[in-house]
Design the sequence.
């Protein structure tokens, strides 16, 4: 598609439950990025993919967080055993090429609320 | 660790006033991007500056990249209520992830 599509728009989970977020990048874009936005401002990089391969996962919490980008499927970000601190808006972005100098096109985010 | 310090964090001004937002770092970036984010939406790219000393204009918005490629500024002339939003700078260096500033939340009052 012409836009990055993220689903669901809102997700509410009880503490300890699993949360799974989805992202369909712009058609033809090779790179996908996941960010966590907390306190309505600060963006924290989580992970990036080049096609279905992990490109950079330096921002991913070592436990509970995992992500995949499989061929012919939306990319996904999964959080196991959610905690209150996982409440945030999770953004996905895609770009045509790698990071440097390339604009990233963002989806509208998934607001995750952990109760 | 590369950091981008963005200031001010909040800015509330009257329609017609001018303003400048700053983005500073001790690190050198190969490029710097400015985004604007509105409530409930993802950031939208405004401009990318690549060359040290580069100035780009987008209507009433002027973006400048510092000579040493460590800092950037966004100047808005005659601000309008439609300029209200969160402005984010983001630095790129090679293949490392974009480093985002903490944003400037601008409110322009009619």
Sequence:
């Amino acid at each position: 598609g012409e836009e990055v599509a993220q689903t669901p728009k809102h997700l509410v989970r009880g503490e300890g439950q699993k949360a799974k977020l989805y992202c369909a990048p712009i058609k033809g874009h090779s790179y996908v990025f996941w960010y966590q936005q907390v306190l309505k401002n600060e963006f924290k990089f989580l992970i990036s993919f080049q096609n279905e391969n992990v490109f950079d996962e330096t921002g991913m919490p070592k436990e509970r967080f995992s992500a995949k980008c499989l061929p012919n499927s939306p990319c996904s970000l999964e959080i196991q055993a959610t905690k209150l601190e996982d409440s945030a808006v999770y953004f996905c972005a895609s770009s045509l090429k790698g990071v440097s100098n390339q604009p990233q096109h963002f989806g509208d985010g998934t607001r995750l609320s952990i109760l | 660790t590369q950091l981008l310090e963005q200031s001010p964090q909040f800015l509330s001004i009257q329609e017609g006033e001018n303003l400048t937002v700053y983005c500073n770092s001790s690190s050198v970036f190969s490029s710097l991007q400015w985004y604007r984010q509105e409530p409930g939406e993802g950031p939208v790219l405004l401009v990318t500056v690549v060359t040290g000393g580069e100035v780009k204009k987008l209507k009433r918005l002027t973006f400048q990249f510092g000579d040493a490629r460590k800092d950037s500024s966004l100047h808005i002339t005659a601000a309008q209520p439609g300029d209200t939003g969160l402005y984010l700078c983001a630095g790129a260096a090679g293949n490392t992830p974009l480093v985002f500033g903490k944003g400037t939340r601008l409110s322009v009052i009619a």
Notes: Chain B has a mean pLDDT of 93. Chain B touches chain A at residues 9, 30-31, 33, 35, 40-45, 48, 50, 86, 88, 90, 92-100, 102-103, 105 (CB under 8 Å).
